[in-house]
Recover the amino acids of this structure.
């Protein structure tokens, strides 16, 4: 596949996914917290077809503690509410498909926002350090090393313990974004510092300086455009990393709290032995992560290749 | 390898000697109705590695599980009947005022190294437990009304215990106090080194007890091997010395899931307590894999929800104090209790392996549950009536407001390490939505949770599971007395904060010194009534004790009390040689 096609394919797939998460309220069959207490751990509902018309049967509990299909009544399309669970249900009978969509909001967008934040910080600090050199450079780079050396997981636990017991969903989300993004600026800052450092010695920059251009103008017109390539490739590398970071944080119970779903806190439930043995559909968020990460990797890979002549 | 073989030879010689010795006049205890077949190894997988083999210091379950297999107590609580039975004490008598106990010891009993046992060992043991310098976690049990009990030797096989104050069923206290060998431990005790004795790396010959097994080997991080104690003081109906098994291996699994997998794959023989989810997962192929699972019914564990009823000093904890205007109202607690769908908890969290709790006593405590308490019935309509009668109102959007117009909003803290508790809290959160309450679930690490509940009082409501120490109200004095450190909703009060807490204090203190069961039961029933009227603890459910054992293990009788599966280890046996494995 050509480079352009790969970029287009990956972007289209990601847009679709982000769109679906944004429109979860429209697409999801149920609200994320709606409990169907008569169907805990129901497996994904099977689709049946009669004369090309899809219909489903409701689950009914069997003797062994599992479910069998109750064939006495068929539910055609349009009458599926309360019986149709495309990816099964969790321990409370909540629809996993709906939760996956709503959870995508948290997981996918926290990655995006955190990457945006750390790139913005990285750009600011990197350009300042690289362009001016001297003590700002030394200060920022030492500070960066300090940030990298911090045991951030323990820091996070300490931060969480010092906050009030209950923080709202939005606050928790922003906290996660702030922490992931605030911790991750060092690597892009170093790369951008390198670009700025070499940029300020380039002949056209020197020439502009000779004509009396001030640092503000030089950075805006000459250095920043040079960093664009680094920023785009860094974004495609950082976003999937940060999506995973959010999943990890929520997995540890440090992200958004129940009943608001995120892929991480959904996976936390699948961590137990019984889930692997009896309820593998709980792993859906883990599976959903694979194509997302893959799409970002393809994108990064294609962007790094030199353009076709 | 060499040392291993040597100990093996010594053990074998000891065995031969023991069987050849002429029948000394001894008081062996006959286990009624027990028969079995000698030989074989039992593998038991433990979640954690024991910390010590020292009975005086052991506080953790993993250590005690092993220690109770290699030691014995004077008077034992039979785990099946929940009643006391003679162990190393052949019989005992209480004086009329209940302050003096005279205990007759079994004669002709020997420690696992062959050294005879007598009253000196008993006196020495209790001296060690009571000595404040040894810091035994069990010492508190022997201290009544602030004063320690006193032990006196009356003869070679007779000891007397003097209680500082009256205490109903004092004989239950002796359960779990392992009798120590004076001939081995007196020297370290005199030198002040008792705490260092009997670590896991001690030579097996030094770890000597009166239990059915004795310490043979410890492999760090892997296993503790116990071998049959040929001098054990019980025999079966046909006169065969117990225990039947030749060896018991305690292997360390690390987590519950690992325990389950080991049991499923046949690497361990007994699964001692597992979660309902694992139980159901295991049930699927029990026939093919050759094990049987048992639901022994609700045990001594009970889960409940409680609200913060502390009086925070003025100025501190403004957030909590602000919400206490509604959290402290009994009507709110009653409404919450009525709105909780306990059947859903049983069905969804415990998959049917639990029972809804009508009162504050776990259902496994059969002799003490107040049977007159009605079964909990969910009624949201009734709950709303109670709230409305107490001045609560609802906003046009359905949110509950207290009499002062404040939104009823609070968080429930629970321990993050326990999936079942978090799930229960999430269900309750959803249930309380029907009353217009805005509830948040906050899972916390267990230590910081306890710190908030017992020390800083910085919480609104908490969902916990408590396991009663013994099937007797005296074991829970610390929970029900208003001065108790585990009086969860308002711990360590200087004077009872409410009239009903004062009444409970009075009733609990009275039942503690009342000798007759019927009278004590009447008093404790009244305590349960008062607790249900005021609902400081909103009872939820009592989970079942779920265990499993490999097919072919005889006399396996899981109990509702602690040490659920190994309590009668001396009676366990393999039905066929094939079952003995390895």
């Amino acid at each position: 596949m050509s480079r352009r096609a790969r970029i287009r394919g990956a972007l289209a797939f990601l847009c679709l996914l982000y769109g679906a998460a944004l429109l979860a309220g429209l697409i999801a069959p149920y609200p994320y917290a709606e409990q169907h207490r008569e169907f805990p751990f129901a497996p994904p509902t099977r689709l049946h077809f009669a004369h090309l018309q899809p219909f489903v049967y409701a689950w009914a509990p069997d003797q062994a503690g599992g479910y069998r299909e109750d064939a006495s009544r068929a539910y055609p399309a349009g009458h599926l509410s309360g019986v149709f669970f495309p990816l099964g249900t969790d321990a409370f009978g909540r629809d996993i498909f709906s939760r996956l969509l709503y959870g995508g909001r948290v997981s996918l967008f926290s990655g995006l926002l955190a990457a945006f934040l750390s790139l913005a910080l990285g750009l600011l600090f990197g350009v300042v350090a690289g362009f001016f050199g001297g003590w700002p450079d030394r200060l920022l780079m030492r500070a960066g090393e300090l940030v990298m050396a911090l045991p951030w997981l323990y820091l996070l636990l300490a931060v969480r313990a010092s906050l009030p017991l209950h923080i709202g969903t939005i606050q928790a989300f922003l906290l996660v974004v702030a922490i992931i993004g605030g911790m991750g600026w060092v690597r892009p800052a170093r790369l951008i510092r390198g670009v700025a450092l070499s940029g300020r010695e380039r002949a056209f920059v020197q020439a502009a300086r000779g004509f009396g251009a001030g640092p503000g103008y030089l950075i805006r017109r000459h250095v920043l455009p040079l960093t664009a390539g680094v920023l785009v490739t860094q974004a495609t590398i950082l976003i999937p990393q940060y999506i995973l970071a959010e999943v990890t944080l929520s997995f540890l119970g440090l992200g958004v709290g129940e009943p608001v779903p995120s892929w991480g806190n959904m996976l936390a439930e699948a961590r137990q032995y019984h889930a692997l043995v009896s309820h593998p559909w709980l792993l859906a968020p883990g599976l959903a992560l694979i194509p997302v990460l893959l799409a970002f990797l393809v994108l990064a890979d294609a962007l790094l290749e030199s353009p076709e002549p | 390898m060499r040392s291993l073989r040597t100990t093996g030879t010594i053990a074998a010689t000891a065995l031969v000697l023991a069987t050849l010795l002429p029948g000394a006049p001894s008081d062996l205890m006959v286990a009624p109705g027990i028969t079995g077949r000698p030989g074989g190894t039992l593998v038991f997988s433990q979640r954690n590695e024991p910390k010590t083999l020292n009975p005086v210091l052991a506080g953790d379950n993993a250590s005690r599980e092993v220690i109770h297999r290699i030691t014995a107590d004077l008077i034992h609580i039979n785990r099946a009947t929940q009643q006391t039975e003679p162990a190393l004490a052949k019989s005992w008598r209480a004086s009329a005022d209940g302050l003096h106990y005279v205990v007759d010891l079994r004669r002709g009993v020997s420690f696992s190294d062959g050294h005879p046992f007598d009253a000196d060992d008993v006196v020495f043991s209790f001296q060690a437990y009571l000595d404040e310098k040894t810091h035994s976690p069990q010492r508190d049990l022997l201290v009544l009304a602030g004063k320690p009990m006193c032990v006196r030797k009356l003869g070679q096989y007779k000891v007397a215990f003097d209680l500082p104050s009256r205490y109903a069923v004092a004989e239950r206290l002796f359960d779990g106090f392992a009798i120590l060998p004076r001939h081995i431990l007196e020297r370290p005790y005199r030198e002040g080194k008792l705490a260092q004795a009997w670590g896991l790396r001690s030579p097996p010959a030094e770890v000597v007890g009166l239990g059915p097994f004795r310490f043979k080997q410890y492999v760090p991080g892997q296993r503790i091997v116990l071998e049959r104690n040929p001098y054990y003081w019980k025999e079966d109906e046909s006169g065969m010395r117990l225990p039947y098994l030749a060896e018991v291996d305690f292997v360390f699994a690390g987590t519950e899931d690992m325990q389950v997998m080991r049991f499923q794959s046949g690497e361990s023989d007994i699964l001692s307590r597992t979660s309902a989810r694992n139980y159901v997962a295991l049930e699927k192929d029990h026939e093919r894999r050759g094990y049987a699972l048992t639901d022994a019914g609700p045990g001594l564990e009970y889960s409940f929800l409680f609200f913060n009823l502390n009086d925070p000093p003025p100025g501190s904890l403004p957030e909590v104090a602000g919400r206490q205007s509604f959290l402290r109202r009994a009507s709110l607690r009653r409404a919450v209790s009525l709105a909780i769908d306990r059947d859903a908890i049983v069905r969804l969290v415990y998959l049917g392996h639990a029972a809804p709790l009508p009162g504050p006593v776990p259902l496994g405590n059969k002799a003490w549950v107040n049977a007159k308490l009605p079964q909990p019935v969910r009624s949201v309509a009734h709950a709303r009536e109670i709230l409305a009668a107490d001045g609560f109102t609802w906003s046009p959007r359905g949110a509950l407001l207290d009499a002062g117009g404040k939104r009823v909003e609070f968080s429930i803290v629970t321990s993050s390490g326990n999936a079942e508790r978090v799930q229960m809290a999430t269900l309750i959160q959803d249930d309380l939505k029907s009353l217009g309450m805005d509830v948040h679930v906050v899972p916390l690490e267990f230590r910081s949770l306890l710190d908030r509940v017992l020390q800083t009082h910085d919480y609104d409501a908490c969902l916990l599971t408590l396991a009663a120490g013994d099937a007797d109200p005296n074991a829970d004095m610390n929970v029900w007395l208003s001065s108790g450190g585990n009086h969860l909703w308002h711990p360590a009060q200087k004077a009872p904060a409410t009239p009903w807490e004062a009444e409970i204090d009075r009733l609990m203190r009275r039942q503690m010194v009342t000798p007759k069961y019927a009278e004590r039961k009447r008093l404790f029933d009244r305590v349960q009534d008062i607790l249900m009227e005021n609902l400081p603890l909103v009872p939820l459910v009592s989970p079942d004790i779920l265990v499993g054992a490999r097919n072919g293990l005889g006399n396996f009788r899981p109990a509702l009390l602690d040490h659920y599966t190994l309590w009668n280890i001396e009676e366990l046996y393999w039905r066929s040689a094939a079952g003995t494995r390895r």
In short: The two ends of chain B are 18 Å apart (CA to CA).
